[in-house]
C-alpha cells in the first residue's frame, strides 16, 4: 500500500515534507489535524494520532486493516524468523497483563462486581497475553 490509499479516506490533509502528512484523525471528532502519516522508503505506512487513538481504531474508522499499511512481501522464499521478539520482552508484557488479571480475580473473589470498563480491560489483558505468546513463538490453544 502507498500512503495514498490511506490519505484518500482522511480530511484536512497537509503535506509537511516529502512522504509526511498531517490529517484529521477519523477515529475521533477531530477539528484540526492531530494525526501523522508517514510513508517509508520500503513502502510501509506509519500512522500516529497525537490525541491517543490506536492504530486499530484509526484503521477501523476508514475500513482498512493492518496489512494495508505494509507492502506485499516480495521475498516469499526466505525462512520466517522463529522468534522475532526477545523472550524478555514477551515475558515483561505477559507479567504486566497477568498482574491485571490477578487484580481482577482478587476483586471478583472479594465480591466486587466488574464494571463494563473493568470487563473490557480484562478482555484486553487476555488478548495481549495471547498476542505476546504468539509473538514469542509459543502456540497456545
Give a verbal description of the structure.
The chain has four helices and four strands; from the N terminus they run αββββααα. With 141 residues, the protein is of the alpha+beta class. The mean pLDDT is 82. The two termini are 33 Å apart. Helices cover 40% and strands 16% of the residues. Strand 1 (11-17) and strand 2 form a beta hairpin.
Q: Which descriptors apply to this entry?
A:
four-stranded antiparallel beta sheet, alpha+beta, 141 residues, 40% helix
In short:
The protein has 141 residues and is of the alpha+beta class. It contains 4 helices and 4 strands, in the order αββββααα.
Topology record:
Blueprint: H1 3-7, E1 11-17, E2 20-24, E3 35-39, E4 45-49, H2 55-62, H3 87-109, H4 116-135
Antiparallel strand pairs: 1-2, 2-3, 3-4
Number of strands: 4
Order of helices and strands: HEEEEHHH
Q: How far is it from the N-terminal to the C-terminal residue, by CA?
A: 33 Å
Order of strands, main sheet, comes to: 1-2-3-4
Radius of gyration: 19 Å
Summed over residues and divided by their number, the pLDDT gives a mean of 82
> What helical percentage do the residues reach?
25-40%
Strand content: 15-25%
Describe the global form.
globular
Main beta-sheet annotation: 4 strands, antiparallel
* Uncertain spans: none
Question: What class, by secondary structure content?
Answer: alpha+beta
Amino acid at each position: 500500500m502507498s500512503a495514498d490509499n490511506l490519505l484518500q479516506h482522511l480530511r484536512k490533509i497537509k503535506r509537511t515534507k516529502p512522504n509526511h502528512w498531517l490529517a484529521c484523525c477519523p477515529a475521533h471528532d477531530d477539528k484540526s489535524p492531530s494525526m501523522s502519516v508517514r510513508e517509508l522508503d520500503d513502502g510501509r505506512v506509519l500512522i500516529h494520532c497525537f490525541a491517543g487513538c490506536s492504530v486499530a481504531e484509526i484503521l477501523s474508522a476508514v475500513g482498512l486493516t493492518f496489512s494495508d499499511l505494509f507492502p506485499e512481501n516480495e521475498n516469499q522464499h526466505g525462512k520466517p524468523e522463529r522468534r522475532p521478539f526477545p523472550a524478555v520482552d514477551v515475558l515483561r508484557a505477559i507479567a504486566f497483563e497477568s498482574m491485571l488479571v490477578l487484580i481482577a480475580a482478587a476483586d471478583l473473589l472479594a465480591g466486587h462486581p466488574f464494571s463494563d470498563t473493568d470487563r473490557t480491560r480484562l478482555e484486553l489483558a487476555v488478548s495481549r497475553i495471547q498476542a505476546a505468546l504468539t509473538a514469542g513463538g509459543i502456540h497456545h490453544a
